[in-house]
Design goal:
By secondary structure, the protein is mainly alpha-helical. It has helices spanning 3-12, 18-28, 34-48, 53-75, 77-82, 92-113, 116-121, 123-136, 162-184, 190-194, 197-209, 214-230, 235-254, 257-265, 278-290, 302-305, 315-348, 352-376, 395-412, 415-427, 432-436, 453-459, 467-488, 495-498, and strands at residues 143-146, 149-154, 159-160.
């Protein structure tokens, strides 16, 4: 080797300074055009500005979760048949899941066609039916008992779980109650906020705990907290309610030996891996065996022997085993999209009932998913709450379809969507799907009128005859002064007549 060649080799072997290395890497990597980033952001903004963007996002998230549910039903159908409680044909669970999806689609279509006013009219009939069913399930011979719990009513083709119907009833009742109080302006004091809301939820929760069913009780607490959060309750009251709910759930958990065992094993499930920590340990093993990509759909083995309730309570563990971390991330992303869209409907709606019902429903379903995924991954105690739209279940899936239809109906009643539907009807451009499905054109929200001056005057006691002319002259003079002020300031509306209602209402008034 010549001296010049050796010199070149020694020069090339010298370490490259950090600044030069960064510059070389930046030059080697493909550059992203700022115009391309701006165009991508503009495309996303244009999509979100469409009048039916909320409807499309809700349908996308719901359809994706239902696809996961059907896939898991097909994957776990053999284990459900040959398990300790299984019976029927090898495709029995898959057929049953398809049947419930078909019935749920009818409920979804029915809910989409309803207006917010129709939901408010259905509140008390659904509440009465749910209360009667909760009382009937406790009667021996009517309620079906399984493993010491009496939670179902046998209707022949399927079993009805009244607590699922009670969730919808309490959601609509609480939203209607708080919306009426908010419109009347009576939420400025705490007692009007809590009464009769808290006693009503307490009564229904007591009936559910008599079954007993702690997991469903947690769902009722989620609905209650969602309503109070959406109505704008101050943080000090909200902290008190959360503390009371946590204390009540803790008391209910420690009163039963099996619940107390689950609560204590939550801190260290591997301490009693064959006893109280069995569910959590086997769920963690199934999740860990999937890795990044999973072992393949239907190829998992944990669902046959080890993971209990693989098709319902611990279906997320089977997703992690067969579809890997990517499948779990896709489920979490779909629930995140559902939560974003539900809160988007809340933000873009003008009806207070729609804001309360949509917000509480979103918190309920997404909170239920958080609790289910939390105890499957060992982050929360096991409560036996199904994963919405994915876990196998009859009444739960039907109720979820109804709530999804309600949210889609609320999204169709956004001001921009109402204008677009009215314009399409006026121009004769309604889509074939809307015409074939007989979906009515939504109407815009009309706030309730306040008491008119005539009704207010009629409610007052009659004035003396001598004072009537003087008051009439004073009223004419006041009207004249108001007219002059309005003509002098034509661009400013009357603040007293157009003052909006307070959205939060528990602040005390200073007089």
């Amino acid at each position: 080797m010549s001296a010049s060649t050796a010199g070149q080799a020694s020069v090339s072997a010298e370490p490259v300074p950090r600044g030069r290395l960064t510059a070389r890497l930046r030059a080697a990597l493909p550059r992203r055009s700022p115009d391309r980033d701006v165009a991508t952001a503009n495309t996303a903004t244009r999509f979100l500005d469409r009048p039916f963007a909320s409807v499309q996002l809700l349908l996308l998230a719901s359809a994706g979760l239902l696809v996961f549910g059907v896939l898991m039903a097909i994957s776990t159908t053999i284990s459900a048949v040959y398990g300790p409680n299984g019976s029927g044909s090898i495709w029995g669970q898959s057929i049953k899941e398809v049947e419930f999806i078909a019935m749920g689609s009818v409920l979804f279509w029915f809910a989409v066609r309803l207006s917010p006013r129709a939901f408010r009219l259905l509140t008390y009939p659904i509440l009465g039916l749910a209360t009667a069913a909760l009382l009937a399930v406790l009667v021996p011979g009517v309620g079906v008992g399984v493993s010491g719990a009496r939670r179902w009513i046998d209707l022949g083709p399927f079993q009805l779980q009244p607590s699922e119907l009670a969730k919808v009833a309490m959601l609509l009742w609480g939203a209607d109650l708080l919306a009426r109080k908010q419109q009347l302006g009576t939420l400025r004091r705490a007692r009007h906020l809590f009464v009769p809301l808290l006693p009503g939820f307490g009564f229904v929760t007591l009936l559910v705990m008599l079954e007993p069913d702690l997991g469903t009780t947690c769902c009722f607490m989620l609905i209650l907290l969602g309503l109070l959060w959406m109505v704008g309750m101050p943080l000090r009251y909200f902290a008190l309610v959360i503390g009371a709910v946590a204390a009540a759930i803790t008391v209910l958990a420690v009163t039963a030996p099996y619940r107390l065992a689950r609560l204590t094993s939550f801190m260290d499930p591997f301490k009693d891996a064959k006893g109280s920590g069995y569910h959590t340990v086997e769920g963690l093993y199934a999740l860990a065996s999937g890795g990044l990509w999973g072992v393949g759909l239907g190829q998992g083995t944990s669902k046959y022997t080890w993971v209990p309730n693989a098709n319902s309570d611990f279906v997320f563990a089977i997703i992690g085993e067969e579809l890997g971390m990517l499948g779990c991330a896709a489920v979490l992303a779909l629930f995140g999209l559902f939560a974003y869209t539900g809160l988007r409907v809340v933000r873009r709606s003008a009806d207070p009932f729609v804001r309360l019902a949509a917000g509480a429903a979103t918190i309920w379903l997404c909170g239920q998913a958080v609790i289910n995924i939390g105890y499957v991954t060992g982050m929360l105690p096991v409560t036996g709450i199904p994963l919405p739209m994915i876990s196998a279940g009859g009444t739960s899936l039907l109720v979820t379809f109804f709530v999804l239809g309600m949210l889609v109906s609320f999204a169709r009643h956004e001001p921009a969507a109402v204008q677009a539907c009215r314009r399409a009807q006026r121009l004769g451009r309604r889509s074939r799907l809307q015409r074939w499905a007989a979906i009515p054109v939504p109407r815009g929200y009309a706030p309730p009128k306040r008491a008119s001056a005539r009704s207010t005057a009629a409610a007052r006691p009659p004035a003396p005859a001598a004072a009537a002319p003087a008051r009439a002259r004073a009223g004419n003079a006041a009207s004249a002064r108001a007219g002059k002020a309005a003509s002098a300031r034509p661009g400013k509306p009357n603040r007293a007549a157009a003052a909006p209602l307070r959205p939060t209402g528990t602040e005390s008034r200073r007089r």
